[in-house]
Amino acid sequence: MLTFFKRGFTILSLVFLYNCSALLPQSGPSTSAIRQEATEDFIQLVEPNIKAINFLKTSKEKDFLSNLKEFQAERFFPRLDIGDVVEVIIYEQPPAVLFAQASPLIQAGPSAFQVPAQQVDENGNINVPFAGFVNVRGKTPEELSAEIYERLKRKANNPQVVVRVLDHRSAKVTIAGNVRESRSIPLSYNIYTLLDVISAVGGINAPVNKTIIKLNRKGKSIEIPFELLLKDPQLNLNLSPGDTITVVYKSQSASFLGATGKNEELEFEAMGITLAQALARVGGLRDDIAHAKGVFVFRLEKPENLVALGVQPRAITQDGRVPTVYNFDLSKGESFFLLREFELKDKDIVYVSTAPAVQLRKFLQTISDIITPIFQIRILTR
Length: 382
What we know:
- This protein is an alpha+beta fold.
- The chain contains ten helices and 16 strands.
């Protein structure tokens, strides 16, 4: 009878100690704990499928393309305005009547007279000898040449007019950041796209795959990965006067915790990375302790994305995001295809829980460490 009570007491003691196993060392919450909190707390649990992942990718692309449309502009053609510096050269066929003795640039053949370079004044005018003040605002160099010709054709012998823009100060863009030289660049016939301006300052001085081109225009902005810009000509946007281009070395990262090969903050390319690629870089899951059903991605997600996936958000943060946990079950073969398509975002947290048997093993090891000395003492005292 006493032996029966001893055995019962031992079993109850083991049960009590196992219930206290939460006191044992562990790398983080268990799979069941996370899933339980997700059903009771403000965390939103999502079990991705291929349809959901395709939607997230499509939604990201739609947002980008929608923003891109606002920045698509016609090719810039220089038009003169206040502050521009122009040069006018007038050629007159022989026998020259008007410009024969006026500082000839060519000794033989047609007479050529160069009007000194001048800045367009606050009224939008320049002064041309024998043509008077000419308003140049909104005109192209060709249109200005034609207007000066009309004013001189009855005074000079078959005049020809050439207008050169020496400094297009009214139509400049600014480029700064991780480039060889930060400065303002005048737009012209040859410099009017993103890559034109980047080339004009000597290129970038940051890794291509981790560089973002940020274009600001009239209070709005768009970010384009430089690597993608080089691959897709449609992203080489036409620029408009006043645009600001910032070349940024953007260090995107995701944190990997739990039963992975390495616990670290993993930096990845500006174009993005899939969960499969990222797990491979940190050494994958530890096959001795990882729980195949417990691969989680913690993210602050857009509410509209969750609604589209058929999930009603329970709580929204002050910045309008929903605390969301994506749970992947790698015990299913199809999950590896999901990992290949699921794209990580900057500041995501990837956590792999330990298998339930690992905690049991720790518990049994702890019990063994407690009981073994007792048995040894009993044996020695016999």
